[in-house]
Amino acid sequence: MCGLVGYIGKNNAKDILLSSLELLEYRGYDSSGIAIRINDSIVTYKDIGRVSHLRSIIKNNIYSNIGIGHTRWATHGSVNRINAHPHSSFDGRFTLVHNGVIENYLELKMMYLSDVDFISSTDSEVIVNLLSYFIRKCSIEEALRKLISVLKGSFALVIFDRDNMDRLYVIKNKTPLLIGKGNDEIMVSSDALAFINSIDSYICLDDMEYAILCKNSVKVFDSRGNIILHNEIKNDTNKEEISKGDYPYYMLKEIEEIPSCIERIRNKYIYEGCITIDESLLNEIRDSDIIYVASCGTSYYASLYFKYIMEKEYKKKVDVLIASEYIYSFEAIGRNPFIIVVSQSGETQDVISFVSKCKEKGLRTLCITNTRYSTLERECDYSLSLEARKEVAVASTKAYVNEVVLFYFLEKAIMNDINRVVVDIDELLISVKDVISRNKEIDNIVKQIVSKDHLYYVGRELGYYGSLEAALKLKEISYIHAEGLSSSELKHGSIALIDSSFPTIALIDNMIDELLVRSNLQEIKSRDGMTFVITYSPFYKDGDSLSLKLVDSSLRIIPLVVVSQYIAYKCALLKGNDIDKPRNLAKSVTVL
Ligand code: AGP
Fold first, then answer.
1. 188 SS3 class
2. The pTM is what?
3. Is the domain of 65 the same as that of 205?
4. Which of 25-29, 42-46, 323-327 has the highest mean pLDDT?
5. What is the pLDDT averaged over residues 29-37?
6. 261 catalytic per annotation
7. Would residue 428 count as lying in a domain?
C-alpha cells in the first residue's frame, strides 16, 4: 500500500517522478504528491486524486534534477490534501514520503515532540519531525540511526534534506525499498516496476538498513552504521508486460491472458513428461505430518483447492489459515509441520508477519509467488514462481488461476503421479479458451444481476471453493454484496434472505454434487429466488445459463471461476466503476 519513489540524476525529476507514480498507482490511489528541488528550495505539490490530476496542477516548464514522490492509500488520517505526502518537518529542513505504519507514533509524539504543531493527522509527519528533533544534537547519520532505533512498525522512507539538496536518505523496515542504478542516475522505489524506463539493475534493502544516495553513489548501512553490500539484481521488467495494449482495462487483458499464463507455467514445471519441482522440497513436504498453508484474499481461496486435493487424493492433513488471524496465535500441531505461504505480490504484510512467526519457531517454509525477489521469496526456504507475469488490476485473475495450477503440479509431484498431467492441462486450456471466446453469452446473466444489491454464489466441494472466490471478485469491483456458500448451508440460515430481488448463481462441477445443488436451488425457487446455473456440458439441463467444455480433473474449478471473473468485470463495466482501481482498495496490502 502506497507507492513511493525518489530520483537523482540527469533527467527532469518531475517527469520521472510523475511517470513512476503512474506505474505505482496500483499500490494506492487516493492522493499523490511530489517534492522537488527548484533553485535553492524544496517545493511540494500534492492533492487528493490520481496522479493524472497531480500532473495537471504542476507547471510543465519546471525543471529539477532531484525529488521524491508518493501515491497514498490512507491509513492514518482521512483522504485530504493535508494528509497527502510528502510531509515536511516543523523547521522545513526535512521532507519525506513514507510507506507503512508507525505503531508507536503517538508515544513518540508525546515523548519528543510535545511542542510541535502538527499539520496533518498522519503518523508520517511524526517521523519527519523526529528527524529534525534528533539532528539538533548529532550528525545526519546518527540522527538516521536514532530514528531507526525508536520507530516501531513498518516503514520505507525517502527523505529530502534542505541543507544538502544533492542527496536523498532512505530507510527500510518491513516494507519493500529498492534502489536502482542507471547511467548517471539513481532511483528509489517500492517496486521495480518504477524502474522500467531507465534503470538497469537494483538492490533490495533489508530491514533496519538505511542508505545515502547521491547522483553517482549509493552507500548502504545497517542500523549500527556498518557498510553493507548487496547483490545487484538485473531489471528485467518488460514494457509490454505492463502495457494495456488495446484493452480498455488491465483486468480484461489479464483474464484473456489466462491461457498463455497456463502455458507458461506448464512449460516451466513440465519437462519431458516430468514435473520439475525440487526433490528436496518434495521430500520435506512428504516427510511432514501436517501442512499449513497461509494466505489472504484470493490467494486464500486458491489455497483451499490445495487442501481439497491433498486430503482427497494424498490423504494428508492440510490446514489453510487466513494469515492475519495467526500472526500472534499460531501454534503448529504435529511433530513435523511444513508451512506453505501463497501471495501473488509476495509483499502482503499479513503473510510476511506470519512467516516471521514461523521462522522464530524454526519451521520450514515454501513461498508460492508471482513476484521474484519479493520479501516473501527472500524470507522463505523454498520458492515456486507462478509465471503469470505482472498482474496490475487490483482484482486478481490470472494469478489465481496459476496458483491453482501450481498447487495441482505440486500435489502431482508429491504423489509422483504424472500420468494425466499433460492431458489435464490440455483439457483445461481448451475449456478456458472456449470461455473466453464465448464470453458474450455471459451478458445474459449480467443483465439480470447488475442492478441487484445482493447475490449468493453456491456450489459444493470445488464448486463451493470456486463460489468463495467468485463472490469476492463480484464484491471487489462491482460493489454488489456477494457471499459464497456451500449450497447445503443455505437451509441453515442464509436462505432467510432469499426473495425475488436476491439472485443465486450455482457453480456445478461434477455429477455427484449436481443433484444436491439442483435440489438446493429448488428450495430457492420455491421462495421466488432467481437462480442461474453455470456447469459443464455433461451436467447441463434446459434452463441452465452456461454450458462449459468438460474438464475431467480437479482443475475444473478454473473455468467456473473464469466465468465469474467475467461476470464481475461486466457488472462493474455496466456500472461505470473504475475496474482496475476499485474504491478503498490497493493491489499490494503492505500494512497489517
Ligand atoms: C484479489 O482480487 C484481491 N485484490 C485480494 O484479495 C488479494 O488476493 C489479497 O490481498 C492477497 O494478495 P497477495 O496474493 O498479493 O498476497
1. strand
2. 0.91
3. yes
4. 42-46
5. 94
6. no
7. no
